[in-house]
Amino acid sequence: MEMHTTTIQEDKGDGIFHKAMNSESKPVWIPGPVIIGAGPSGLAVAACLKERGVPFLMLEKESCVGSLWRLKTYNRLQLHLPKETCKLPHMPFPPEVPAYPTKKQFISYLEAYAKHFAIEPMFRQEVQSAIYDARMGFWRVQANESEFLCRWFIVATGENAEPVLPNIEGISDFKGSLIHTSRYKDGADFEGQKVLVVGCGNSGMEISLDLCNNDAQVSLAVRDKLHILPREILGRSTFCISTWLLNWFPVKLVDRFLLVCSQVILGDTHKMGIRRPKIGPLEQKKSTGKTPVLDVGAFSKIKSGKIKVTNSFPLSSCLH
Ligand SMILES: Cc1cc2nc3c(=O)[nH]c(=O)nc-3n(C[C@H](O)[C@H](O)[C@H](O)COP(=O)(O)OP(=O)(O)OC[C@H]3O[C@@H](n4cnc5c(N)ncnc54)[C@H](O)[C@@H]3O)c2cc1C
């Protein structure tokens, strides 16, 4: 089969891929990887390729880098992990940024990172399909009206980018407003209102705290067993302590240590309606991928009764 393509030797930051795409309707041959997604992962890969002089094309469906952070997160969000564990390769956070950067600071960091490495994603390009042509030995990547051909294809589309709204029994009769966390911005919008937060992960816990701080009456629906850990132990990041301990001790022992510390710092979560799984937090993360909740203050509101935990499922009884 004869195929007509446009071949681009190298994008030196002058947007040559973009021009080629605009001027031709033929498939565009990329002499390097195509990366989908201009979030932190995509940017990190792109910077490493730039450092080695490897040309690439980055496709992003939104019109900015770090779109998850910019468009789908709430205002009070800070990194749950310290900045040194969240920095991207070859560029640390500026020293004036606090240990747990705010959402704004994290977005500024991502923008500065893209600028520093001259990463120019092609925005508003949603990849619809990517098919490996085994006979020819390359990928055919379809984005909007364009087709790209490449030998390497890197998917950096994230694990939280798409909202998932479960089918909640009785929800069709619910008269109030229903929003997914990706559209939640600020507790001030709910002042004085009764709010049910469904799901007790890091986002659910922090949004409950935000609502509570803004005088909403908050109930938190907790279905599964989960681990809540303090964000810090004796002023040190729990995450950093855990990874350091894992250099010397087995997971089970580090888990035991974390659970004793949690008991001392937070108290008994079970008494508050939040049951812990049989396996420890790190073992659970390893075997199921489920991240423990790092508490940033919500648990004390639960203990004081300001956030009410409900374990009653189905939720229809709570929806009035
Ligand atoms: C509320 C919240 C708090 C978090 N807090 C932390 C934290 O404190 N620390 C931490 O390390 N992580 C945290 N995370 C996890 C978060 O997933 C990471 O911070 C980070 O954003 C993951 O980067 P990523 O590049 O893998 O994915 P994303 O940031 O999700 O980026 C994926 C990109 O791919 C684009 N994309 C998706 N599909 C397509 C397509 N078909 N075509 C083109 N583009 C596409 C998306 O538009 C997006 O820009 C948090 C997440 C949330 C939601």
TrEMBL record:
The keyword Flavoprotein applies. It is an enzyme of class 1 (oxidoreductase). Its EC number is 1.14.13.168. It comes from Salix koriyanagi. It catalyses: indole-3-pyruvate + NADPH + O2 + H(+) = (indol-3-yl)acetate + CO2 + NADP(+) + H2O. The keyword Flavoprotein applies. Pathway: Plant hormone metabolism; auxin biosynthesis. GO terms for molecular function: flavin adenine dinucleotide binding; indole-3-pyruvate monooxygenase activity. Pfam families: Pyr_redox_3. Its cofactor is FAD. This is indole-3-pyruvate monooxygenase. GO terms for biological process: auxin biosynthetic process. Signal peptide: none annotated. Belongs to the FMO family. Keywords: Auxin biosynthesis, FAD, Flavoprotein, Monooxygenase, NADP, Oxidoreductase. It comes from the Eukaryota.
